[in-house]
Amino acid sequence: MASSLVRSLVTLAATMTSLVTSKPLETVDLTYVLGKDAVFWPGQPPFNFTIILRGRQPGGYWFEVNAFGLGEHGGTHFDAPAHFVQGGWRAHQIPSSRLVGPGVVVNVADKVKGNAEYELTTEDLMNWEEEYGRIPDGAVVLMNSGWGSRYPDLEKVFNTKNPKDPTTFRFPGVHRDAARWLAEERNITALGVDFPSPDTPRKSVAAGYPVHTTLLGKDILILENVAYVNKLPPRGATIIIGTVKLQDGSGGPARILGLLGIDDASGSPQLRACRLTVLLMVLFSIVRKVVTL
């Protein structure tokens, strides 16, 4: 009887562990390729790449080494608080705990179709909460405007025939009241947009970049030119912000990832499997003591 029960428990543990780990995590890369076509704000040094050595060496092995340079704020990148806040965190000072959080994707692409300078509103955020629940603490809020389809065409991204003159730029943004609401009423880690800046050029820039100053003043990172936001669900993804730990940097290139398949309430499938296995081992130990009495 005891051996039969033991075999049953072992089989059950193996079966249940297999069930909760059989589906791997899905990764969505939210990053554009960093290369010569990367979009930079005017005044930033463009991307440059130099091959130092590339070829087969006398020993028969292949070897490559290169050098590259660029401005901090181009392509898919992050703004550190120091970008607009005197004394704010610089890139190397951002705590690692601020680089991961539950994803919140607010889709306003239909509204942007009718208004290229549409600004995300507090009402948009509240409507999201009515449908999907309160924005969780530590969230990375991403605005899906549909603008990413224009990348990396400079004239289309900046929506102008003169991409060297910011006064002519016309693209979406985030309303200052929405930024203030996120900073004061919610506890988020970062705000990301799928265009060059959450401050709309014609409205916000003249007002002193209120979205940047509001969010960065609360240590909320800003992510710009976030790619493929439309591939994420409204909620349920976990966002990882891979920043460059640049000494004294005000920002820099970022590799941003969205992970799907992680259960916020009970952990990842792998974590659930570990918990389940421990539980079954305890149960096995108890049963074995009972049957040997």
Automatic annotation (TrEMBL):
<dbReference type="InterPro" id="IPR037175">
    <property type="entry name" value="KFase_sf"/>
</dbReference>
<protein>
    <recommendedName>
        <fullName>Kynurenine formamidase</fullName>
    </recommendedName>
</protein>
<dbReference type="InterPro" id="IPR007325">
    <property type="entry name" value="KFase/CYL"/>
</dbReference>
<dbReference type="GO" id="GO:0004061">
    <property type="term" value="F:arylformamidase activity"/>
</dbReference>
<keyword id="KW-0732">Signal</keyword>
<dbReference type="GO" id="GO:0019441">
    <property type="term" value="P:L-tryptophan catabolic process to kynurenine"/>
</dbReference>
<dbReference type="Pfam" id="PF04199">
    <property type="entry name" value="Cyclase"/>
</dbReference>
<comment type="similarity">
    <text>Belongs to the Cyclase 1 superfamily.</text>
</comment>
<feature type="signal peptide">
    <location>
        <begin position="1"/>
        <end position="22"/>
    </location>
</feature>
